[in-house]
Amino acid sequence: MSATFLGMPGSFPENSREAVQNSQLRFNLRKATHTIRDKRASVVGELPDWQELRAAGKAIKDHTLRNLDRYLIQLEAAVTEAGGTVHWARDAAEANRIVTDLVKATGETEVVKVKSMATQEIELNQALAEHGITAYETDLAELIVQLGDDFPSHILVPAIHRNRSEIREIFLDKMPHVSADLTDDPPALTEAARLHLRERFLRSKVAISGANFMVAETGTLVVLESEGNGRMCLTLPETLISVVGIEKLLPSWRDLEVFLQLLPRSSTGERMNPYTSMWTGAVEGQEFHLVLLDNGRTDVLADEVGRQALRCIRCSACLNVCPVYERAGGHAYGSVYPGPIGAILTPQLRGMSSELDASLPFASSLCGACYEACPVAIDIPEVLVDLRAKAPHAAAEKAGMKVAGWILNDHERLARAQRAATRVRKLVPKRLPGPLSAWTDTRDLPEIPEESFRDWWERNERA
Amino acid sequence: MSAREEILARVRKAVAGAGDVEIPRHYRADRQGGDLVELFAERVDDYRAIVHVVPAAEVPGKIDECLGERRMIVPDGFGREGGWHDVNTADGVVTNCAVAIAETGTIVLDHGPGQGTRAQTLVPDYHLCVVRADQIVPGVPEAVARLDPARPLTWISGPSATSDIELNRVEGVHGPRTLEVIIST
């Protein structure tokens, strides 16, 4: 992917204004999110103990985060004991440098990749390209995004904004050996992807992955996938490098029994995803490197309200139920983490210094559907509200709020202000002037009554 | 300060004073009984895999029938002679499994005797797996308890598939596009 998310201009309202005008995009998104929503509801409904699993998942993650230092050290020891090498990266630049050096040491200039949010977050492909190393995405949706020179727009299905005929166009344009009579039938498209990648899998000496889970107790890494591209990358190359966020940890082997039920049902709406690979250290003669990534996670951990975002297992259920995401699409969020979880994760990981990042906590109607759907019970609306308070606000808004606070804090002041307002009610415009217009652009001013309730009450009590 | 020390210090500072959390485990685990063969067969079939339920004595004949003229990889320890050796030119692979899960229709390979290496069960386009009825457990917790994390594990639920085009499951990307399961009772 040559495109890069970092430094993307604009704000969520600006980006989404364009997106909602795109009827093809809205149609694709609506169809896809409603398909997955129905599937998810049906397989979640099958489990009588879903809420108990959800409670356990939440508690396991919270316990892990509370004791993260201890579990990271335990994981490091277990992976090392099993023949793997553990590296630590404070930020994206450090992680990219570690991976680049590891690839260079093999002498290879091509790597195959398993779909990974962490490597997208640090923009590893671009970093490798700067050193003459080409990274090939092998997940079908990532391949569509990479070949289409496009941005991912969904955590699980990065090409969710594309329908089958658009995918066919991309394949015809960018795959060298594809036949001109390729149809837009999904099995035909997947066959084209299979043939396109087959040779590359068998030839590649280095693979790069992320992981869904790491088990501190045993040093085991876990990758869930559907296509078998993950298995190809994890199994065939001589060197495997996994870049994993430090929050992906689970304390014990047993904890997988919870998450292997929560994740597939929440993400693709299946009882189980087609393939899950688990490996501990260096396996079957392969060289294994694990890069543990911070990149802002410890900042999130330090925030008492916001730290619950680190429970996220990247299932994307919150995207699929979000009325804002369904209409705006993933690109408007300007980050690899779109949708409700992105609206709380991105501003915490990157800070709110850019206009885009500061606008993300407002990219929600606070309807709460995301919280309901979340398999680890992240209270996304709570974090959104907390971040809104922390986001930078315009001077006029801050001054207005300060005055309002001063008046509302004292009942005598409030009564005087209300009487003053009723006297000038005919003069108040429908829309506020100057910098205050930002408020009335999206809201109606309330009608000012002829008499305040307090005055009415007083008059009638006396009568 | 090394990256390791710095990250660990930042973690400790971030959570200092936070209370620990008890983990409630009130979900279903350690289940016994039920007709697991029937449920497992139904759930595997849901993934559009091919399922046969066969008495143990008839399994060798059923395997012959399934294999036909295919050039098959027969892993060490499977209990059959011969077989093809080159994964790149083989038509298929026949294996046993370590555990199977009824509720999710999942087969787990730990790549022990009779189960082949990870590459052998991945590269050929056809996978025939023989599951003994006593290997089927009710759900995910029971399977996790039986598995050895020190071994490489491959969990398989139906043939290779993708949901990347309009979020509908389509069989057949990079792994075996045909999965056939013989349940030996």
Structural class of chain A: alpha/beta
Please name the fourth-level CATH homologous superfamily of the domain at 12-163 and 205-298 in chain A.
NagB/RpiA/CoA transferase-like
Q: What is the radius of gyration of chain A?
A: 26 Å
Q: What is the tally of helical segments of chain B? A: 4
Q: Mean pLDDT across all residues of chain A, rounded?
A: 93
DSSP summary, beta strand count of chain A: 10
> Which CATH-level-2 architecture of chain B?
3-Layer(aba) Sandwich
Strand order of the largest sheet of chain A: 1-10-7-4-2-3
Average residue-wise pLDDT of chain B = 94
* SSE order of chain B: HHEHEEEEEEHEEEE
> CATH superfamily membership of chain B, which one?
NagB/RpiA/CoA transferase-like
CATH topology of chain B: Rossmann fold
Write the layout of secondary structure elements.
The complex is a heterodimer of chains A (463) and B (185).
Chain A: H1 12-19, H2 23-45, H3 50-66, H4 68-81, E1 85-89, H5 92-106, E2 110-113, H6 117-121, H7 124-130, E3 134-137, H8 140-147, H9 164-174, H10 186-203, E4 206-209, E5 213-215, E6 220-225, H11 229-235, E7 239-245, E8 249-250, H12 256-267, E9 275-280, E10 287-293, H13 297-301, H14 317-321, H15 323-328, H16 339-350, H17 355-359, H18 369-373, H19 380-390, H20 395-408, H21 411-423, H22 437-440, H23 453-462
Parallel strand pairs in A: 1-10, 2-3, 2-4, 4-7, 5-8, 7-10
Antiparallel strand pairs in A: 5-6, 6-9
Chain B: H1 3-15, H2 36-46, E1 50-54, H3 59-67, E2 72-73, E3 92-95, E4 99-101, E5 106-109, E6 126-132, E7 136-137, H4 140-146, E8 153-156, E9 161-162, E10 170-171, E11 178-184
